Amino acid sequence: MINEEQHCRLEELSRVFLKENGKLNLSAFRTKESCWMGNIMDSLAILDQRICPLNIEGMQVLDIGTGGGFPLLPIAMCFPEVKCTGLDSTEKKIRAVENMAKELSLNNVNLICGRTEEVGNDPRFREQYDVVTARALAPLNVLLEFASPFVKPGGYIVAWKSMNTEEEMKESLLARAELSCELAGNFEYDLGESWGKRQLIFFKKRSKLNSKYPRATGIPKKSPLL
After folding, report:
1. Cβ(130)–Cβ(152) under 8 Å?
2. Inter-residue contact 77 to 9 (CB < 8 Å)
3. What digits encode the pLDDT tens for the residues 114-166?
4. What is the pLDDT of residues 181-202, one digit of tens each?
5. Are 114 and 94 in contact (CB under 8 A)?
6. Is the omega angle on the peptide bond into residue 139 within 30 degrees of 0, that is, cis?
7. Which among 84, 88, 106, 71 is positioned nearest to 24, based on CA atoms?
8. What residue ranges define each of the domains in the chain, with the CATH number in brackets?
9. Do the Cβ atoms of 148 and 177 come closer than 8 Å?
10. Cα–Cα distance between 63 and 75 in angstroms, integer?
11. What is the spatial order of strands in the sheet that 60-64 belongs to?
12. 149 in Cβ contact with 214 (< 8 Å)
């Protein structure tokens, strides 16, 4: 899955993250083992490229709600030819990820501080990305409204989810239709021991998004598409 050089670099990421996490509450994973499994290995599930390839030079990837930088930083580290951007509304988190990227010499990482609903209407970022990732962010019907404004037609949204998504999938049917997002498949993976099974769910954006989406800040969560 990862080569020896990448493994060493990812261990350095774990060290740098734990140092930064000691200053700010970026993640509940505060030990080397929990950070490795819960943050890094979980993020790297996307390295399975049967559905959504990430090894195309110049590809643009956006991680929304990037928080402490996962999966943004592991993706950037393993795919230096990919341009990776992290978006989060909390400035202190963006600054922390910026510090980590600088310390790790990740020159393919950019960061944006702002709300997804607002940034998604900015022509500089709207429909500019090949892949949008979201990990532990929101239910699918809300997540798709957050993510779809950023994805190019023909691009992908990748959501990190537990195995219990039957209700979410049903409740996302209208959102998928409204936001031109079709289910492209899923990839199940097992982190082992107490971590258990999880999955990535892939959506492909069929066409250009209606200009009424995303709705105003706060509306997608308060009144999700059902």
Report:
1. yes
2. yes
3. 999 999 999 999 999 999 999 989 999 999 999 999 999 999 999 999 999 99
4. 999 999 999 998 889 999 999 9
5. no
6. no
7. 88
8. 4-222 (3.40.50.150)
9. no
10. 10
11. 109-113, 83-88, 60-64, 129-135, 151-161, 197-205, 181-190
12. yes
How far is it, in rounded angstroms, from Cα 58 to Cα 148? 20
The three state secondary structure string of 103-153 is HCCCCCEEEEECCHHHHCCCCCCCCCEEEEEEECCCCHHHHHHHHHHHEEE
In sign, the C-alpha dihedral spanning 85, 120, 187, 34 is positive
Beta bridge partners of 102: none
Specify whether the CB–CB gap between 69 and 17 falls below 8 A.
yes
Residue showing tokens 């899923």: 186
Give phi and psi for 185, each to the nearest 5: 140, 180
Tokens of 92: 């202190």
Please say whether the dihedral angle defined by the alpha carbons of residues 16, 47, 174 and 117, taken in this order, is positive or negative: positive
Q: How far is CA 115 from CA 4, 112, 163, 197, in A?
A: 37, 9, 28, 31
SS3 at position 226? coil
User: Phi/psi of residue 156, each to 5°?
Assistant: -125, 150
In whole angstroms, what is the distance from residue 215 CA to residue 60 CA? 24
Length in residues, the chain: 226
Answering whether pTM is above 0.90, one says: yes
Burial pattern 19-32, b for ≥16 Cβ within 10 A else e, equals: ebbeeeebbebeee
CA angle 137, 160, 112 (to 5 degrees): 50
